[in-house]
Design goal:
Elements (H helix, E strand, L loop, with lengths): L7 E4 H4 E4 L12 E7 L15 E6 L3 H4 L6 E4 L1 E3 L6 E3 L8 E2 L3 E6 L6 H9 L1 H10 L1 E3 L2 E3 L2 H5 L2 E4 L2 H39 L13 E4 L4 E4 L12 E5 L3 E4 L13 E3 L4 E3 L9 E3 L6 E3 L4 E5 L6 H7 L3 H9 L11 H4 L3 E4 L2 H39 L9
Parallel strand pairs: 3-8, 15-20
Antiparallel strand pairs: 1-12, 2-9, 3-4, 5-7, 5-9, 6-11, 10-11, 13-22, 14-21, 15-16, 17-20, 18-19, 18-21
C-alpha cells in the first residue's frame, strides 16, 4: 500500500544521524576513563534490561563520540531473526553511558521527525520487513550494517500527525507495561508461595510428619518401547517453554520402534537439556511417545501425586539440584539415576493435593494475565499496521 500523498519518504540518513559504537577489542592509547556501556543484551524490544551493565575503558577524547544521550533511539545490529533491529528510546537511565559497536544510536532531526514515531516505524511491520529483507542471515541469526540502516526508507508524515500517532500507541504501551508489572508481581508471589509450601508450611491440621526422601523412593523410570504400536503423529519432543509438543519432522529418526511410551501423568525429558528446564508431564488422554534417548518416569501415586511433583519440579530446590547434577565432560547428561537422588520433604497425600490446588490456581491466574497481554499486544500491532502506513488517518 502506498502512503498518503502528504507523507514524504526519506532514507533515514537524510533525516537522522546514525552513530556506530565502541569496539571492545580495539587497541587504544592515551588517557582513559572507565564508563558503563550498553551491550546487545541490554537492548530489548521496546525496553532496556539493565540488570547487568558492564564497564569499559574509553579514551577521554572519544567519550563524547560514543556517549548515549536521553532521547537517543538505540537499535541492535543483529540477533534472533524475529528480533532483528530491536530497540528502544534511551531516557538517561545511567549517567555518562556509552554503547558497544553492535548497537546503533539514531538521532533524528526533531524539526522533521518525532523520535517516538521513528522508533515505532523501526519496530513495526514496515521496519521488520525491511531489516529482514536486507540482512545477512545464518542459522536463526541475522544482522544489518550501518549502510543498510542509513538506507531505511522512512515515512515522514506531517509532524503533528507523527506526534498524535505516537501518543495513541503510547497509551497501549502504558497498558502493556502495567500488565507486565502485574504479571511480574504475581510470578514473584507464586515463587515465594512455593518456597513456603515446599518447606513445611502446614495447610491442614495433621499429625503426619513430613519425611525427607529421595525421588527414587516414590518414582520409577519407565522404558517401554513403542515397537510400531504408535505412528509418527504421536511422536513428541519436550521444550522448556511449551512442554510436550509434536516433534518436528526434520529431526525425527528413520524409525519409531525405539521410541519410549509416555502415559498420561508421566514425565519425560532429554537428559542433555533438563539442566535448562526442558522437562514436562504429559497432559493428554491417550499415550504418546518420545525419543528413545529421552528419560521417562512416573510418580508412585500411592505416595507422590504427579500434580504435586509437577509443581515441585519448578521449585528453586529442584533447579539447584539439577544444576549441580549430571555427568559427562562435553555436555551434561542427567539420567534418572542422577535425578532420583533429589531429596525433598514429602507431605501426606491430602496435603500434597491441597498444595497442588493452591499452585494450580496461581498458574491459572498467570495464564489468564499472559493471554490478556498477548491479545492486547496483537491489537496494538494491528493498530500500528494501520496508523504507521496511513491506512487510517488521525485528526490533529
Amino acid at each position: 500500500m502506498k502512503p498518503p500523498t502528504d507523507w514524504q519518504i526519506h532514507e533515514l540518513n537524510e533525516i537522522a544521524v546514525i552513530q556506530t559504537g565502541l569496539s571492545k577489542s580495539a587497541s587504544r592509547t592515551g588517557g582513559f576513563v572507565r564508563l558503563p556501556y550498553l551491550r546487545v543484551a541490554n537492548v530489548q524490544d521496546g525496553h532496556f534490561d539493565l540488570s547487568e551493565v558492564k564497564e569499559i575503558d574509553v579514551p577521554k577524547f572519544l567519550v563524547d563520540r560514543f556517549r548515549v544521550l536521553p532521547g537517543d533511539l538505540l537499535l541492535t545490529e543483529g540477533g534472533d531473526f524475529d528480533k532483528l533491529g530491536r530497540g528502544a528510546i534511551w531516557s538517561g537511565e545511567i549517567k555518562d553511558c556509552v554503547h558497544q559497536n553492535h548497537i546503533f544510536v539514531v538521532r533524528s532531526d526533531r524539526r522533521k521527525m518525532d523520535q517516538r514515531f521513528l522508533a515505532l516505524q523501526t519496530q513495526g511491520p514496515h521496519g521488520r520487513a525491511y531489516f529482514q529483507s536486507c540482512s545477512k542471515q545464518s542459522t536463526n541469526l541475522a544482522s544489518i550494517n550501518s549502510t543498510q540502516l542509513k538506507q531505511f526508507p522512512t515515512m515522514v508524515p506531517p509532524l503533528p500527525e507523527q506526534r498524535k500517532i505516537a501518543d495513541i500507541l503510547g497509551t497501549w504501551d502504558e497498558a502493556l507495561e502495567k500488565l507486565d508489572a502485574l504479571i511480574a508481581s504475581k510470578a514473584r508471589r507464586k515463587k515465594a508461595l512455593m518456597q513456603q509450601l515446599f518447606t513445611g508450611k502446614r495447610l491442614l491440621r495433621s499429625h503426619t510428619e513430613w519425611r525427607r526422601i529421595q525421588l527414587s523412593e516414590v518414582a520409577e523410570e519407565q522404558s517401554e518401547r513403542n515397537e510400531e504400536t504408535l505412528d509418527r503423529s504421536r511422536l513428541f519432543a519436550v521444550t522448556k517453554a511449551e512442554g510436550m509438543v509434536p516433534m518436528r519432522e526434520r529431526v525425527q529418526g528413520a524409525t519409531v520402534h525405539r521410541c519410549k511410551i509416555v502415559e498420561r501423568g508421566w514425565f519425560a525429558y532429554n537428559p542433555m537439556r533438563i539442566n535448562i528446564g526442558s522437562i514436562a508431564r504429559w497432559e493428554g488422554t491417550d499415550p504418546v511417545m518420545v525419543s528413545g534417548d529421552y528419560v521417562v518416569f512416573r510418580a508412585n501415586e500411592s505416595r507422590l501425586l504427579s500434580d504435586y511433583l509437577n509443581h515441585l519440579r519448578r521449585s528453586t530446590a529442584w533447579a539447584d539440584f539439577v544444576g549441580a547434577s549430571g555427568n559427562g565432560s562435553v555436555r551434561v547428561r542427567i539420567w534418572f539415576d542422577d535425578l532420583g537422588r533429589f531429596k525433598f520433604l514429602l507431605p501426606s497425600l491430602a496435603e500434597q493435593r491441597a498444595i497442588a490446588h493452591i499452585l494450580d490456581a496461581a498458574d491459572t491466574e498467570l495464564r489468564l494475565l499472559r493471554s490478556q497481554r498477548a491479545a492486547l499486544d496483537q491489537q496494538k500491532r494491528g493498530l500500528m499496521q494501520r496508523l504507521l502506513t496511513g491506512k487510517v488517518r488521525v485528526n490533529v
